[in-house]
Design goal:
25% of the residues lie in helices and 31% in strands. The chain has 263 residues and is of the alpha+beta class. It starts with 15 loop residues before the first helix and ends in a 14-residue tail after the last strand. Residues 1-14, 21-34 and 239-259 have low confidence and may be disordered.
Amino acid sequence: MLKPRGGGGAYGGVPKFVRQVSLVILFMLAPALRAEPSLEQARRAQALLGPDVWSRILKIENSGRESRYPRVLHALVFELAGILWFYSATDGTQSLSLHEGRLAEEKANMGPLLRDIEPGFTRWSIVRSNFPALALRQGELSNGCFIESVAELRRRLERGEALERPRLLSYYDETPFGLHGHTVLVFGRGEHWEFFDPGRPRARLMVAKEDGLDPLALARALDGTTVVKARYVTLDFAAPAPVSVVASTESSRKPAAEKPDQS
């Protein structure tokens, strides 16, 4: 440990008044030096998806008085499976599109889509991205199970793994606090369907193929009978754009009406 030395109240050779001024300056600059958490999360999500997935980081001002979202937040809007999606650190990923087959129109006018998620989202702007940054892929992505499952699929395909019918499995289970959403990667290998669960990435989770490929049955085999709704999101990274959302079991809503997908 450094000891005070010299006269005049010096500490390690630094005059006391200099230390006091430095502390004041650091205190004033701290908000600017510290990255906005929601912006950092949005950038990490964008980096995980990769540069060939269309995405935009938004800064959103929320005027809603009773809202689960903060007054100012950053979010990522991205395209997968032929529709737009909305990720925020607050509650994960949910579908954003209100229409099928109108991607260009929705990208050009995201205001109505954002207000459908939260009526208080009346002001927003696009944040310029310094992309890609490898370091952003490290660390935890809050409520990031959907995007982490996409990233895991891409990693496996890049390694040349042979995956049979890979897809995302999004499901919702009943809790005392309402429906809770989660997404995992599922694919066939040999005699089993295997799962990658971002919440337990080191676990090898499998069910026999003889159990079929019904999304609700697979979700219940993985996470219990409290699961009440499940659906697949099928991605094709070999095509110019990911292709389809497969209709869910126990769901009558269109993709745009799905609840947030939380980890």
